[in-house]
């Protein structure tokens, strides 16, 4: 039997800087509460599951945060205030376009100025300029807040804390759960304090089930918000059934169902009434379009309808 969510929080201590992060989030929300802005909490990247308290080893997952970071840019573009809860060192909005060693290839040293000045190569300006322009606009609008996590337990603490600051937005708040969250973990009480030693032989690692956090999130933390979760599978045959199962169980608004191998080009938006395929064609991809643009367009329209219905009641 998995622990209840209350037991999970009781047994796994919060991150040491939780209060500081709570204050940042509260200040951010306060700023956007009165200006009528919509707000979206985006979760992005994978959680780690430590195997030791002084963690040397941990269980990780594949997610690089591409979905979450791209979606954040598109939500910002259409005016949402964005809280980006992301795995530290995973892909970040805007930076994702200039990451890696290519970044250094974009720069040159200005020899005429005594090697003290660096500029962007003229041939790269057309790549950097649109990104920098959008980044500066997001910064100026003060509509973008990043909050980092690494472990599963930090993620769950921050998710709860951020959700608890959002109810005053009512239907204007959207929760977009794109992070790849581990279903399994090693309870704090069963973890060795120090690095496991090979001289002690092969360890037996028992993973427990993580309680389903969507349940309190939807029913108590943000009961009036527009909540969207993702369902990831590797077997097409069970994808929609599992997505429907999650909708029925947690009673949120949409499950975006995706398969690991085709996640960049297809998701199915599953609602209690409907299934809508959102597709990126090869041709659109060649033009530099991204699936997340279409996902965000679809969701913002659905969110508008939801806000109208909520205010009409
Ligand atoms: C997703 O399904 C995301 O679309 C991906 C994005 C993690 C596949 P990338 O970071 O990948 O762009 O490479 N996220 C949710 C995954 C998840 O943990 N879902 C749980 C489940 O399927 C429910 S909350 O049971």
Short descriptors:
Rossmann fold; two-stranded antiparallel sheet; 38% helix
Mind explaining what this structure looks like?
The protein is an alpha/beta fold and 313 residues long. The protein has a single domain, classed as CoaB-like (Rossmann fold, 3-Layer(aba) Sandwich). Helix content is 38%, strand content 20%. It has ten helices and 14 strands. The protein has helices at 5-11, 18-33, 66-77, 102-105, 125-141, 152-163, 214-221, 236-250, 282-286, 291-312, and strands at residues 39-44, 49-50, 58-59, 81-87, 107-110, 117-120, 144-149, 173-177, 184-185, 208-209, 226-233, 254-259, 266-270, 275-279. It is globular. The model has no long low-confidence stretch (mean pLDDT 95). The structure holds ligand 9Z3. Ligand 9Z3 binds next to helix 3 and strand 11. Pfam families: DFP. Keywords: Ligase. This is Phosphopantothenate--cysteine ligase.
Percent strand equals 15-25%
Helix-strand string: HHEEEHEHEEHEHEEEHEHEEEHH
Largest sheet geometry: 8 strands, mixed
CATH class, please? Alpha Beta
CATH architecture, please? 3-Layer(aba) Sandwich
Query: Number of DSSP strands?
Result: 14
Small-molecule components bound: ligand 9Z3
Query: What number of structural domains do the residues give?
Result: 1
Helix count equals 10
Summed over residues and divided by their number, the pLDDT gives a mean of 95
Fold-level CATH name: Rossmann fold
Unreliable sequence segments:
none
Going across the major beta sheet, what is the strand order?
Answer: 7-4-1-8-11-12-13-14
Task: Please tell me what the overall shape is.
Answer: globular
Organism: Frankliniella occidentalis (Western flower thrips)
Family: Belongs to the PPC synthetase family.
Domain DNA/pantothenate metabolism flavoprotein C-terminal: 172-287
GO molecular function: ligase activity
């Amino acid at each position: 039997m998995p622990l209840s969510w209350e037991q999970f929080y009781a047994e796994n201590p919060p991150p040491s800087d939780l209060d500081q992060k709570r204050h940042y989030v509260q200040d951010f929300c306060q700023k956007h509460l009165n200006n009528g802005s919509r707000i979206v909490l985006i979760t992005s990247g994978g959680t780690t599951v430590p195997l030791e308290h002084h963690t040397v080893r941990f269980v990780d997952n594949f997610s690089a945060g591409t979905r979450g970071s791209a979606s954040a840019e598109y939500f910002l573009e259409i005016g949402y205030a964005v809280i980006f809860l992301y795995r530290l060192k995973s892909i970040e909005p805007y930076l994702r376009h200039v990451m890696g060693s290519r970044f250094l290839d974009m720069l040159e040293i200005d020899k005429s100025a005594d090697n003290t000045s660096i500029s962007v190569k003229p041939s790269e300006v057309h790549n950097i300029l649109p990104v920098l322009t959008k980044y500066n606009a997001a910064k100026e609008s003060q509509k973008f807040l990043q909050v980092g996590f690494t472990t599963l337990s930090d993620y769950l603490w921050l998710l709860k804390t951020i959700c608890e600051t959002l109810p005053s937005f009512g239907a204007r708040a959207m929760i977009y759960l794109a992070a790849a969250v581990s279903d399994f973990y090693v309870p704090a009480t069963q973890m060795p304090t120090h690095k496991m030693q090979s001289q002690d032989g092969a360890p037996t690692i028992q993973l427990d089930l993580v309680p389903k956090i969507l349940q309190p999130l939807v029913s108590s933390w943000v009961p009036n918000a527009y909540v969207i979760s993702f369902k990831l599978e590797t077997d097409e045959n069970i994808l929609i059934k599992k997505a429907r199962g999650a909708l029925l169980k947690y009673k949120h608004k949409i499950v975006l169902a995706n398969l690991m191998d085709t996640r960049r080009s297809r998701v199915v938006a599953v609602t209690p009434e409907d299934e809508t395929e959102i597709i990126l064609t090869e041709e659109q991809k060649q033009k530099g379009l991204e699936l997340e643009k279409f996902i965000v367009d679809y969701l913002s329209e659905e969110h508008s309808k939801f806000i109208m219905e909520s205010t009409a009641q």
